[in-house]
Amino acid sequence: MNLPLFTQLLSKKNIAPVEHFPDDPRLIFTTLPSIEDRAKIRFLLGSHIHFELGQEEQVARLIKHWRAKLSPELNGNDNGRIDQLDDEYLKDLASDAPVIRMVNHLMERALDLNASDIHFEPEEKYLMVRCRVDGVMVPIEKLPVNVQPSISSRVKLMARLDIGEKRLPQDGRIQYTMGERTLDMRVSTLPGVHGESIVLRILDRSDVTVSLDKLGMPADILKPYSRIIQQPHGMILITGPTGSGKTTTLYGTLEKINTGTQKIITVEDPVEYQLEGVTQIHVNSKIGLTFAAGLRSIVRQDPDIIMVGEIRDHETAEIAIESALTGHLVFSTLHTNDAAGAITRLQDMGIDTYLISSSVMAVMAQRLVRKVCLHCAQETPLTQEEAHLLDLNLHKISTIKRGTGCERCANTGYRGRLGLYELLVISNEIRHVIGNNGDANAIREQAISEGMRTLRSDALVKLYDGITTPEEIVRVTRAI
User: Which residues of the chain fall short of a pLDDT of 70?
Assistant: First the structure.
């Protein structure tokens, strides 16, 4: 069967095969084909073919997928390797309509999945395209190896990179418009054994405005946090590993307290989104504009509120704490496992204990947990092993929600993420523990005795509510 020709015939009737056809022999339609058309299709493909009602945008995307994937030019027999192609030929390849369609399709497929990154990974016999969706890598396409030179050249042209440079890493930027959405993509290339690995980091300008109320922060954490960020001075730290949503929380915080009556300045690496009414500085270590240098300049600009993207060294920590002690409200981030660990991290940087206890008002630790896909969620039993891992009583919770996998969630069973939070408010008792050189465990135990909700506790609440799964909780949190 000529699948490209067949797909063209179907597209005229607004019918499209699913992405994994023929392994999954389903055809999606918006208007049910006539009995004669269905008989012809089953004659061509077999009586096992199933017809399924879908949305117009779903069918349009599938048609675009098959047109791009089955373009004769992209599936030709040219097995030439990238190092055998000259720059002019690469430019011609990258400007070909099938290549443009394929790259655009892959970008739009990633956006449909709300991916944060697109990875083009050349292997010996194929080009693997994967996306990071909700923090986890998901394969979306496996292309013939011969298209790798044209795909990489197309992306490099869009990012205004040197097509001829294949031996050294390069960094660039793409501005991509899809409908009413304007996207900034940071592009990174890296030479590999089988060709250049390319990663596109997607920054969606439409997602700039983030409300603290929509981040999944529990009411018993949101209320005290909202009160603390209204204080006139002091330091508030957000902690967690890379990709745990710290920057989003900081932007949501600034959006909440930005009333227009105060001067707000940030120093970031990089400035991911531009905030209205906020002066933002982009760190550039090549010219000496480090976090410390930027922060030192900020305090001479008469700010009320300062946001430092990350405290990485003693100098930055020292200036930030000094600013907090001299009448500024300072926000920043640290890479620690929990809230109590931020205190000991500052001590490890050489900051005196009395300065820490005097300046730090609160520490928020956070993680991002994947949410069960609403479109394929089903009630399933909680296993004995899962109950043991999470120290749960099967008599209190016997069933939970899990996603079975569908097209909307790329068959992962998850769609979207929600924050887990742990707020450590520095009380007089905790200051006493810090002053006596108490370690992170002592600070943590005192905070729990005062009612602090841990990351694991917050995660279990979301499990009871059917929002997430035991696998996710174990993946992103630690047992207490």
Answer: 1-12, 22, 43-47, 68-97, 204-209, 479-480
The residues, ordered by sequence, that sit 6+ positions from 105 with a Cβ below 8 Å of its Cβ are 64, 65, 68
Q: Tell me the chain's radius of gyration from C-alpha atoms.
A: 26
Q: How far apart are CA 69 and CA 216, in angstroms?
A: 39
- How many angstroms separate the CA atoms of 174 and 468, rounded? 34
DSSP 8-state code for residue 24:
S
**407, 414, 375, 409: which is closest to 19 by C-alpha?**
407
Strands (E), 245-323: 264-268, 279-282, 305-308
Using DSSP, state whether 266 is helix, strand or coil. strand
Task: Report the DSSP pairing between strands 50-53 and 26-29.
Answer: parallel
Q: Which residue has the tokens 């418009």?
A: 177
Q: How many CB atoms lie within 10 A of CB 79?
A: 9
Residues ≥6 apart with Cβ < 8 Å to 62: 16, 17, 18, 19, 28
Q: Which burial class, exposed, middle or buried, applies to 34 when counting CB atoms under 10 A from its CB (0-12, 13-18, 19+)?
A: exposed
Nearest alpha carbon to residue 264 among 253, 248, 284, 280: 280
What is residue 339's DSSP assignment?
S
Q: How far is CA 321 from CA 76, 209, 343, in A?
A: 62, 28, 12
List all residues 6 or more positions away from 174 whose beta carbon is below 8 Å from its beta carbon: 155, 158, 159, 184, 185, 187, 200
- Indicate the length of the chain as a whole number: 480
* pLDDT tens sequence across 351-400: 999 999 999 999 999 999 999 999 999 999 998 888 888 888 877 788 99
Cis amide prior to 22 (ω within 30 degrees): yes
**Using one digit for the tens of pLDDT, what is the confidence trace for 391-425?**
888 777 889 999 998 877 878 899 989 999 999 99
Q: Which residues are within 8 A (CB) of 245 and not within 5 positions of it... i.e. 6 or more apart?
A: 215, 366, 367, 368, 417, 419
Phi, psi for residue 98 in degrees, rounded to 5? -60, -40
CA distance 229 to 425: 12
Please state whether beta strands 329-334 and 305-308 pair in parallel, antiparallel, or not at all (unpaired).
Answer: parallel
Q: Are strands 117-122 and 170-178 parallel, antiparallel or unpaired?
A: unpaired
Q: Hey, which residues does 364 pair with through a beta bridge? A: 238, 423
Helices (H), 113-183: 148-158
Q: Residues 231, 233, 237, 243: is their CA dihedral positive or negative?
A: positive
